[in-house]
Design goal:
458 residues; alpha/beta; eight-stranded mixed beta barrel; five-stranded mixed β-sheet; 50% helix
Length: 458
Amino acid sequence: MLLEAVNRQLQQEISDRHQVQEQLVYSALHDALTHLPNRTLLMERLEMALQRVKRYPDHLFAVLFIDLDRFKTINDSLGHQVGDRLLLAIAHQLQQLVRSTDTVARLGGDEFIILLDPIQDINDAIRVAERIHTQLRSPLQLASREVFIGASIGIAASATHYQQGSELLRDADIAMYRAKEQGKARYEIFDRAMYAEAIHKLQIENDLRQAAVGQEFHLNYQPIVSLDTGKIIGFEALLRWLHPEQGLISPSQFIPIAEETGLVVPIGEWVLYTACSQMKQWQTQFSHPPAKISVNLSLKQLREPDFLEKIDRILTETEIAGESLNLELTESMLMDNVEELIFVLGQLRARNIRLSIDDFGTGYSSLSYLHRFPIDYLKVDRAFISGIGAGGKSRQIAATIISLAHQLGIKAIAEGVETPTHLQHLHALDCEEAQGYLFSKPLDLAAAESLILTNPQW
């Protein structure tokens, strides 16, 4: 009896040890929150799928890289517990949309991976992506709230050139970011052009980090003209990058990358300091200097906790008054943390700094908020000015924006003025200021100073 009891105890200990070992293995291969396979298990299954492709070249599978849109906003506003419940709900939904032979994994955060293995062709992966989007159109009920969330999905299909599973994951990730760039809540299929573009962007990012050190940045200046006097009233400072190998790189290429990486903060500070320094020099150098210098701001700059301190330091060190500086914001920036933004803009106005909304009419600002912002100018986007003489919707929109500015007690500035006809219509609409190629293209420093000396009148 004693021996049997000892054997039972040993067997129980062995069973308990096996259970502990199994639990440890399970925990090592599964996500703690959703219990989905984690990156480790996913990579094992990806490598197995690649081995099948190498043995059977006709074998096809696909990877879907899924990133939830607006998850951070929901997580921050409703709390992490609601965020966790949302992730659990999404994990359950994804499992319901695929076959038992497929793998749904969570990489972490709000990133999920689906390994579809096998597939007949890429259309199988597309159908799954479309089912996911259809499913997510319905709200999720969380904490007595209806929560709407979308997903950006990147798709990469197996091919014989892949050597490692990480390469497939990388390409699906690249395609997912393309989906986000194209407006979110959509899917994109990876192709080699995306990879080339990603490599190019990485090179741009690396070069951007060296550009300030190598003094590759400079400013061009485009005059802003008073339509009342026909005289130059100010200049907009525009950032330019002269790459030592690639030559002049368009801001449309490097500014979005600077935004993504946060490099826009130090670069933007350099632009502010340089523009203010130049303004002070003009005030000293010319008897009739321009009244203001305009500089574009990034939302990331405004979010910096010491942003106002930086503004104060720049104004002090360059010795220019606040009224000589005009800061330009994009319309979409006004919809982010409205109350905080109103406070910061109010602090800028308290320093007599002027404020403009750039490219007005192209963003998503709410008119219910507009009157609360201490704005001095609305800038009418060039897209509406280019068609202003055609008598169609462009002129009606331009007229509406200019009228709105006047009703708010502020001024309107037209961008992209290129012809006398544009100018004639803007005079008729009582637009106060304008800039564009009719007056001058953006100029280097020497040409801008020559224009100030010439003091032309239009």
